[in-house]
Sequence to fold (229 residues):
Amino acid sequence: MNVRTLFFASYRDLAGTDELALELPAGARVADLVGRLRARGDALARLPESLVVAVNMDYAPLSTELRDGDEVAFIPPVAGG
Amino acid sequence: MSACFAVITADAIDPARLLADTVSSSDGAALLFWGVVREQNDGRPVADLEYSAYAPMAEKEMLRIAQEAREQFGTGAVGVIHRTGLLAIGEASVAISVASPHRGEAYEASRYVIEQLKQRVPVWKREGYVDGEREWVPGFTPAVQEAQ
Fold:
């Protein structure tokens, strides 16, 4: 299945891009996606240990099972206002 | 009865329009929170602030907060607008209008919206300092509910 991953603010600086498309096996969870990103051997390995993620625009735990077409956003600490 | 609304925009915020869009005939008060860019942060002179957002999610989360405030405090409509892009000192980065039959609930609801916004809404800011450096402003880590 295919998922879109989005990077914002300091994570975008780290990733060097605001978006990556990834192919994952059926049944993969957010944690598997994170593992895949860390294993790429590029700057994404430096993503912090405690990650906050939104799946389809709602905050979601790393145990969330992904589906084809999901949008997974990596949310750095927020600083609105 | 007016509906709650939430907007992320690159355009300057119009406070009169924001107030008018929240007030209805059952309201006796409307309270405007006007958040502006300050000239210094922790003693360091700031030249400007650059805001970015995960816009569709930020709008969704701000609307959710506005509706929570309305339900929790029994106000009328709540409207929230947040800017993106490069903002100068004195420009409004965020504005919240709470319309309400009575003023007490409006003050409480307005406070609730700005505090929740700062903790939950995916917006980021980078300060540009007078010396030319730019840095991401440290923020809040949103709380994530574990799966049931």
Strands of chain A lie at 2-7, 19-23, 53-55, 58-60, 71-74. Residues 22 and 52 of chain A are 19 Å apart (CA to CA). The helical segments of chain A are 9-15, 30-38. The two ends of chain A are 37 Å apart (CA to CA).
